[in-house]
Each structure stands twice: as structure tokens, then as C-alpha cells.
Amino acid sequence: MKIAVCIKRVPDMESRFKIAASGTAIDETGLKYDISDFDAYAVEVALQINEKAGAGETTVICLGPDAVQETIRKALSMGAEKGVQLRADAVPADSLAIARALAAELKDGGYELILFGKHALDTMTGGAGTMAAELLGLPCLTAASRLEVTGARATARRELEGAAELLEFPLPAVVTIDEGIARPRYPSLKGIMAAKKKPLDVKPAQLGSVRVSVEKMELPAERPPGRIVGTGPDAVPELVRLLQTEAKVL
Amino acid sequence: MPNILVVAETRGGELRKVALEAVTAARALADAAGGGEVHALAFGPPGLAGKLGPLAAHGADRVIACEHAAYARADGESMSATIALRAAGFPLVLFSATAQARDLAPRVCVKLDAPLLSDCLTVALSGQSVVATHSTYTAKLVATLKAGPMPVVVSVRPSAVTPAEKARPLSAETIAPAADPAASRVKVTDVVTSGGGKIDLGEAPVIVSGGRGLKEKANFKLVEELAGAFGNAAVGATRAVTDDGWRPHEDQIGQTGRLVSPDLYVAVGISGAIQHLAGMRTSRTIVAINKDPEAPIFKVADYGIVGDALEVVPALTAAVREAKKGH
């Protein structure tokens, strides 16, 4: 099956972030980058579908500056066949602009399945996949925690708050991937070597107008220092008293 | 004086609490800008129209019930078509940032050619633009975003706004979907509920959450009993616990799970890994019970008890039960 996976390059979220001098972005000095978690699950899902079928081709698409080529190579080393960089100086904060650029690339690709992570770990917006589906006129399923493909149809499971839905839909379609679906594999040495020779096309990103900007980036307000009420079950009465009289939540 | 269309979320034909939060947020925005109209649109099976009074009570000038037998469940394709139709001419469309909105809001953005501000903690109007704060980088940073010119689509983080009554005279309308739900390409074949009448993590005023410190799956019943004592509590879990299958995946709170902000969050046997803190650090009051006094959870907790969860929790459950009795 011809599958496209749209991935994003994000910093390691365990990093200690600092704000850049501009006050509107993070300071990138010394940060390590990788595929955003949910996008890595999506790559794994694509690889598993094609491995099960014994045929197919997975293309990874990533929008951003040339540094994203390293991220694309990582997906290629996991086993994807082709990479496409949609070159842009920076990834805008406008998910509709991103979706437009991705849809322009996806439109004539002949993909039967297009996967996204449910959201990127840096911006945490989660709009681009569904928007791309809408721009392409394709059925869309958001936040799938299970996905199975049989011929030209697929079934999926989606977690809602307090319930889950089982769904069925025709292909081609766009699916955004939630956690729990598949653990991304580590690239093998052989995979890393092979990835160096795999095709990686570079094209300009057709972003169109960008209408969302970051005005400020800051650390969240620190929580006022808390206190240890006591040790063991003996501390329970004092805790309950504080919850009643001070926090007023009981 | 901008008019705002609110998509008021329902589940099984009943308004959700997030719907009242969304109308409250819209009313405040419209009033701050000199008093635009707030229209609230809800989807549900026939009979919904009679249940939308609370939307007017919380400040909706007009209440629109889109009724169809299929709307006992959400349907992204037909609902987004109806929303886009009703949103024509509205500078702002406001959703609650729920699983359903994650499906609907981006579709509406494309149909209206409007940018998206997702999962906002605060929203304000600024000239022809919308300015919002939003948690980013797995909740380690807060971004202030500006989108415009309007129209703009916004979704507001559940519990970020406290519902407040500001009654308007009830002006109601019932409409049919703009597209036939039966024609939608994505079909729901089954719904799995993970426990009848369970309070959802996104709506519960109290969350009791458990981690590895509970030692084994069976001990999670202590967490459930404590939640039961509060009466209005939902049960959450850390990723370690859901990965091990002690709890279902959808109970996971953290970077890759649910992001919650209840009035009270009780962390039981949770060390406080960054991935977990990302999902709960905006809770109003945090209580931590952990054996290790150095555990990072105590850095974000308002109140901590150092001790074995298996000993402390039963005592707390009894005390909470007693306190609730006094009410």
C-alpha cells in the first residue's frame, strides 16, 4: 500500500528549555531533536501495515528547514522508502498554513493512506492532519489507538473521554495516530546504512498566508512552594483540615 | 461588537459541563468587547431542544438545537458542515478542547478559511485578532499566540473557565443538519464505555491518580475507594501504570495522555516524572502521597504526606468519608 506519513522534528522534551532573546521562541542551543512521539508511532504503523501485506511503499514528509533532513533519515532508517522535505525557513504556528503545504504535496501522490501523529509535542495544536484531510476531501479519523486495513477499507478505534468508538471507513483516508498503537522500532545498523542511499526530495513548502504568530514564549508561573504536612497515616487529619479550611476543596 | 458562535458539546443527548464553560467564556469575551451576541449550537437526537435552557442561563442570546436521530453520537462530517454554515459572518467560533473538537474544529477552519487556536488557557480579543495563551512543549512552556484577522476558530481547555450564570431570555431554534449524517464516510460500528456513569477525567472536579508506588494492580482499588469517598472524583493513572496494563490507556494523565486541571488532584504513589507533571501541573490544589520525601511530585504539591500509600490512603478515605458526612 502506498502510505504517506507526515512527521515533525521536535526537541527532546526532557530538555531544560530556555527562552530565546526574542522572547517568542525557545533557545535552540544544545538541544537534541527527534521525530515527535506520535509521528514516530505513525511511521511504525505504516511500516507494520506494509510488512504484513508483504508489499507497499512508505513516504515520510516533513516540513521545515534543512535540519529536518536528519529527522527524515531517521524514519528512512526505521524502514520508510522515500522522504520529502517541504523546505521552509521555520515551521509556522499556523496549522492551516502547514496543512495547506502538506495537502499540496499529498494531493497527486496517489496515497491510499495518509498518517499523522495526533499532535506535535512542541506546539500541541493537533490541527494539521484533520485540516489536510478536509483540504483533500478525504475521510478523516482522529486519534486512532488501533488501525487495521483490509483491502480498500479500514477499521480503527478512537478514545473519547470516558468511552471508545470503533469505526469503519473507506480508503484513501487520513488517520491521526494516538499513543498505545505501536511502539516505534529502533533503527538497525543495516537500516541506518540503507537510509543514506534512499531518495530524499526537497521542494519548497507552499504555505500561503500565515495568520498565527507567537507573541510570547514563557515559563509557566511557578507553583507556590508546597509543604509536607506530615508522615504516615497520622498526618491525615491535618491534611483534611487544610483541604477544608485553606484550599476549600473538601 | 463581535458575535460568537459556540459549539456546545453534548454526549448521549445531554449537555456536557464543558458546554457551559464554553458559553461562559464566549459571554465574557463578547461583553468585554462591548456586547456582541453569543449563539450556542448543540447537536443531539430529537428532544435535545428542551434541554438547552442552561446555555441561555449562562449567557447565550440564541440557542440552536441541531436534531437528528444519528446524533446520539458525534459525526464529524455532517456536524462540521452545519457548524460552518451557521458560522458564516461570525468572527469567532468557540469550541471546548475535547476529543470531539479535535475532530470538528480543524474541519471548520478549512471550511471557513480561518486559523485555529487550539486548547487555549485564556482568550482575549485584540482589534481584528484573537490573542490566546496555550500550553506548549508538553506543558513546560506557555505560548501567547495571536491569530487574525478574524474569523478565527478557538478551542478552550476544559476546566480553564468556571461556568457562571448570566441569564439571557431563552431564544431557541431547532434546525436539521446541513448534511445527511447517513452519508458520512466514517461509520461508528460500536461504542465501548469503560464503566457506566463514570465521571470523565476532563470534567471531574477531583481526580485521584495512582502510580507504581501502589506496587501492584490489585491495590488500585484503594485509589478507587478514595475517589468513591469524594463522590465527585475520577480515577487517573501514570503512564507506567497504563503501560503495564493496570489501568486502561485512556486513564493515563500526562504528556501523551490526558491534560487535566481539576480543583483537587491527589497523586498516590506517583514520583512525578516530567511526563506526568505535564498533564496535571495546572490543577488548582495538588496533594501528594509518596514514600520518598525527595520525589519530584512534592515540588508541585501544595500538600504532601510522606508515607506508604497502602497505609495512608485507607486512612484518608475514611477521613474524607467522615468529612463528607458532615456536609
Keywords:
heterodimer, A: 250 residues, alpha/beta, two-stranded antiparallel ribbon, globular, B: 327 residues, Rossmann fold, 2 domains, 5-stranded parallel beta sheet
Please describe what this structure looks like:
- The complex is a heterodimer of chains A (250) and B (327).
- Chain A is α/β, with parallel strands linked by helices.
- Chain A has a single domain, classed as HUPs (Rossmann fold).
- Helix content of chain A is 26%, strand content 32%.
- Chain A has 6 helices and 13 strands.
- Chain A has helices spanning 37-53, 68-78, 95-106, 128-136, 189-195, 236-245; strands at residues 2-7, 9-11, 33-35, 57-64, 82-87, 113-117, 140-150, 153-160, 163-170, 173-177, 200-204, 212-218, 227-231.
- A 9-stranded mixed β-sheet of chain A has the order 9-8-7-10-6-1-4-5-11, sandwiched between helices. Chain A has a two-stranded antiparallel sheet with strand order 2-3.
- In chain A, helix 2 (68-78) crosses helix 5 and helix 3 (95-106) crosses helix 4 (128-136).
- Chain A is globular.
- Chain B is of the alpha/beta class.
- Chain B folds into 2 domains: 4-183, 3-Layer(aba) Sandwich (Rossmann fold); 206-325, Rossmann fold, CATH 3.40.50.1220.
- Helices cover 28% and strands 29% of the residues of chain B.
- Chain B has 9 helices and 17 strands.
- Chain B has helices at residues 17-32, 53-57, 76-87, 99-112, 220-230, 239-243, 274-280, 297-300, 309-325, and strands at residues 4-8, 10-11, 14-15, 38-44, 62-67, 92-96, 116-126, 129-136, 141-147, 152-156, 172-175, 187-193, 206-210, 233-237, 264-268, 285-290, 303-306.
- In chain B, strand 15, helix 7 (274-280) and strand 16 form a beta-alpha-beta unit.
- In chain B, helix 3 (76-87) crosses helix 4 (99-112) and helix 5 packs parallel to helix 9.
- The longest helix of chain B has 17 residues, at 309-325.
- The radius of gyration of chain B is 21 Å and the shape is globular.
- The mean pLDDT of chain B is 94.
- The interface between A and B is large, with 83 and 98 residues.
- Strand 13 of chain A pairs parallel with strand 17 (303-306) of chain B, so a sheet runs across the interface.
